[in-house]
UniProtKB/TrEMBL annotation:
Keyword annotations: DNA-binding, Transcription, Transcription regulation
Keyword Transcription regulation: yes
Record keyword Lyase present: no
Protein name from the UniProt record: Helix-turn-helix transcriptional regulator
Domain HTH araC/xylS-type: 203-292
Entry-linked PANTHER family: ARAC-FAMILY TRANSCRIPTIONAL REGULATOR, HTH-TYPE TRANSCRIPTIONAL REGULATOR EXSA
Signal peptide: none
Species name: Thalassobacterium maritimum
Amino acid sequence: MNISKFNPYPEYRLEQWSSLRIQLLWAYQQQGNLPQAIDLMDYHFQSAALVIKGWAKVGTDTQAEQLAKPGQWLIFKQGQRRQQFSSDCELLSIVYRFQLPTGQALYDAGLPLIFDAADAPGLETEARKVLPLMERHVAAGFLRSQQVLDMREYMLTQNALRSFLLELTAVLHAKGVHPYAMNEGAPQVAQALEIINAAEVPDLGKSVTSASIAKQVSLSLTHLERLMVAETARTVFQHIDARKLQTAQDALLVDHDSMKAIAYSLGFSSPAHFNSWFKKRTQMTPLQFRRRGSLG
């Protein structure tokens, strides 16, 4: 990866760019429905929010909270987030994924970040291009994963996100926030991650297993595990489980189906099994996550 003080945009090989996950999840401008008490939760996406009215505080479990006031952008960090909002807080918010194949955010170190909107007027301009495209389909809320869109509207919406991310990338560069440096790595690791990310969710842990993936990439499971841990600090099974958890969280936030329907769609034998599996990984039940996550 090359980064210079003159060019704010990182350079990767084409195959690395194509492996990134760039996805618009949510865009809204609204007041209220935000946690006024301190809320601590893991988020599997990032958010960029312009404070229109009131205030917002954000931090992590290891970082002191920062305060964003009207006219300031707040760029949230993916992962564990401590947040609190005033009762009159109004936000213009873009929620997205800009992730490596491992699920790690491409821009992570140095976040959360607060800066004046006057320092980056183009960011609000691009954000406001996203809003009407989202509102045309879902008003204020997540883009439902099962929602049917025609190609033109889908491409226009996703392209609006890419224009927003270009503007945001330039701002982050100016503020000293740089992207993750993707290493060359073993091609079998990239191939294994691609298989996991492309798999249908009910197949994860069933027909798509650590052993079946090792066979597809023509390595022994021991060799693949060694490479995977060395490059990503996770085993193949942990990547499979993380993908399943992320999809479960999406379903809880996006599709608004019953817990029973979600459990079976994810391949669980019963809602109780899904409940215990989810709680073990997030320290909250699926219902608790749905209620709190909708405020993200």
